[in-house]
Amino acid sequence: MAETEPSPTGEGAPDLARPVRPEDHGLANWVMIAGTVSAVFLSVHQLFNLQFFGIVLIEGMYLYILAGIFLGLAFLCFRATKHRPASVPWFDWVLCAAAFAVAGYFAWTADESLDLGWEYAPPETARWASLVFYLLILEATRRAGGLVLFCIVFVFSIYPTFADKMPDPLSGFASPFMDVVPYHMISSESSFGIPMRAFGGLVIGFIVFGAVLQRTGGGKFFNDLALALVGRYRGGAAKVAIFGSGFMGSMSGSVISNVLTTGAVSIPAMKRTGFAPRYAAATEACASTGGVLMPPVMGATAFVMASFLSMPYAEIALAAAIPSLLFYFGLFVQIDAYAARERLEGMKREELPSLSAAIREGWVYLFVFALLVFMMVALRQETLAPFYATALLLVINQFMKAHRFTAQGFAGMVTGVGRALAELTAVLLGVGLIVGSFSATGLAGTLVNELIFLAGNSVIMLLIMGALTAFVFGMGMTVTACYIFLAVVLAPALEQAGLNRLAVHLFILYWGTVSYITPPVALGAFAAATIAGANALRTGYEAMKLGGVKYLAPFLFVLNPALIGDAPVADVLVACIAAGIGIWFIGAAMQGYVSFCGRLPDGVSGLALRLLLAAGGLIIALPGGAATGFSGWSLAAAGMALSALPLAVAWAGGRREVAGVGR
After folding, report:
1. Quick one: 627 exposed, middle or buried, by C-beta within 10 A (0-12, 13-18, 19+)?
2. Of 11, 263, 425, 659, which shows the fewest CB atoms inside 10 Å?
3. Total domains in the fold of the chain
4. Per-residue pLDDT tens digits for 375-395
5. Which domain holds residue 619?
6. Per the domain annotation, does 397 fall within a domain?
């Protein structure tokens, strides 16, 4: 889902659980509710093939109607400037109506357009309607995605008009502007290509499910469960943040909104138990960033990936499970080491909920998730699964007094869902223009060959170039937008180098989110720093250290597909154990404390030992075979040999404390 730049008040980040009263925004709020309910009903009608009143919509007509509704709502949600008037300005109502009208025109003519090939030879009316639609999409992208994304989208959208004048390898087929615009709006290769098809087929259901789960008490249950399980142990407040923020981030897919919602609770709790403000903020930022990589939901981007790869979403989620667990394991190791080094206590027992009470009150949420996972994995019904899970949640909700919907609460939830979907639609339609330009000019193929040439047939160099490219584009785009762009430009080059296709796309996704914890942008870390009252830049650097596994893990699993489950079971287990030990040692080196052993000394000698331990951990985690030229066992032996001295020094230091489960 798209993120917007944070502010101290949290303005700009959609909060799906926040109740919004109809009187807050008057008519605009009621239009939001009506539009959102209509769009969700349309999605249910289409995906379940209900055929009410004998109505059957072709895919193009369905997507045009969805786009028109949410594009119009985007102009009611996001203002033209940073100065937000109390009510919706008249010109935003005009833009909203124009979006409804022009999308309605294309929906009405979808059959004729498909039969007559309008994307290449549109009638005059369709040309001018395409121009209006194009301008509306650009403005909505600017409002929802920010100025940087708007500039990137705009330049690439008109690229086909001057592609023939660009030097190789950027040269491509050129087309007049008034031919390019209808192609963008009518063809299935541009705005209404893979991104919007994923939105209409998968994303809506999961965003609705996430919103209902939060609003019906699911978020509170999982937070209480984490508190009851690990809250009393050292660093317990931070460990709870890992579970809570990871879970909530997986549902929302939004780093910023997750930081601003869960961080409002977790960061003060961490500070109360002794965590430095910048460390508390960095922990929340890393946990929230990892949420968009955590199954079973993984936000919107994973569903777009499923469409790109033509794979069931369940396979994407299963492949992403091990890397995301390694990321959170690395974060957990560092938090425990920090707490042990600083001798921090856990939360007081009276502050914590009872485990039995938490399970007794919220076990039904586990049942809902079991249904969701069963339908996705066993029945392979990922399109319908979130709707069934949502329906079950709504039924259960009526028997839970504490979280039972009121009219006001339901209206607030619907408005929050509408805002999130409007934001995502605006971004996806805009990014689709980039995909369309590459399709129209044939640029994707030439860029692939050029990247391979520049890398000199070196897979490692190609991966480094890909990581840097993803990082740079991630600074100016949302996670979903960055992924779509690089899936078109970069992924084919990496695949052509012989790398696992699914691992390549996960590699891009991971590196596309790195900018949320990496200065100079680090939006996730800066948003958390605002809540913690910490220095933003220092928080960003602390988040880089805590989230160090995120920089390493993509290289590990793209070179060793066993880490995404694409290998025999024995190989997967060996790879996971090696990666886990390596990440443990690297995390210990970062914090200067080895779990189950003790503290490493300070000073120059301590720094040398930490570097030695980190090098040993890296070598252990590296894959054996063709990727490195060494066997896995020889790498493990070399890594343990390097790590032996730091481990012995930590053990002999006499400061041993039990980590992970020790108090």
Report:
1. middle
2. 11
3. 2
4. 876 777 778 888 998 898 888
5. 567-663
6. no
